[in-house]
Amino acid sequence: MAAPGALQRSVVLPAGRHSASLIFLHGSGDTGQGARTWIKQILNQDMAFQHIKVIYPTAPARPYTPMKGTFSTVWFDRYKISNDCPEHIESIDSMCRGLTELINDEIKNGIAKNRILIGGFSMGGGMAMHLAYRFHQDLAGVFALSSFLNKDSAVYQTLKKNKSILPELFQCHGTADELVLYSWGEETNMMLKSLGVSTSLHTFPNLNHELNRTEIEKLKTWILKKLPIEAAETNE
């Protein structure tokens, strides 16, 4: 695996002064550039902002058990694609360390931790929930699109002992998803809400394991709510 600080990334720079950052984690087998291109095709333009830098990192290739050990660009390994099995915590924690380096890079660039959002699609959203709720509870927020956590997730175990204010979760899921069932996403949302997370779950009828324009537009509105341009002046 690549060194933790060496994650490749595709970056959309802000049009104006950089005062906030967004990290978007791709789904299994994809790349940062692939996720950026997919969103660009849906919107007919990059997801771009006046003041927010958008970073699409690429997961290092590793053996992936659901693909019989074939190397794939995945954030962590799974024993199987199911919400009813143990998490592969060693690979999750290893990647949390690598992504922490990415967060620290933004902080070194003068961006306050509460001006950084993290999230992603499918496995990327699951990774983001582990990273934020277990290790970086002072981030601005978390988004998870067509994502889930396992029933006995380490995230839930951490939050059962937590007393801090937690980042808000923005979740979207299609009811026709055949890979990550809608019920898995709904159960994740309910569990996190019961453990003190402020959550929203946006349901998309007939949407399979994919993104659509309405979903991305809703996400953009939420991003600007969490990282408003007015706050830029307080971050000198």
TrEMBL record:
Its main location: cytoplasm. It catalyses: S-hexadecanoyl-L-cysteinyl-[protein] + H2O = L-cysteinyl-[protein] + hexadecanoate + H(+). Residues 10-224 form the Phospholipase/carboxylesterase/thioesterase domain. Transmembrane segments: none annotated. It is found in: Cytoplasm, Cytosol. The keyword Hydrolase applies. One of its GO terms (cellular component) is cytosol. The keyword Plastid does not apply. Keywords: Acetylation, Cytoplasm, Hydrolase. Its EC number is 3.1.2.22. One of its GO terms (molecular function) is carboxylic ester hydrolase activity. PANTHER family: LYSOPHOSPHOLIPASE-LIKE PROTEIN 1, LYSOPHOSPHOLIPASE-RELATED. Palmitoyl thioesterase that catalyzes depalmitoylation of CGAS and KCNMA1. Acts as a regulator of innate immunity by mediating depalmitoylation of CGAS, thereby preventing CGAS homodimerization and cyclic GMP-AMP synthase activity. Does not exhibit phospholipase nor triacylglycerol lipase activity, able to hydrolyze only short chain substrates due to its shallow active site. Belongs to the AB hydrolase superfamily. AB hydrolase 2 family. This is Lysophospholipase-like protein 1. It comes from Aythya fuligula (Tufted duck). The gene is LYPLAL1.
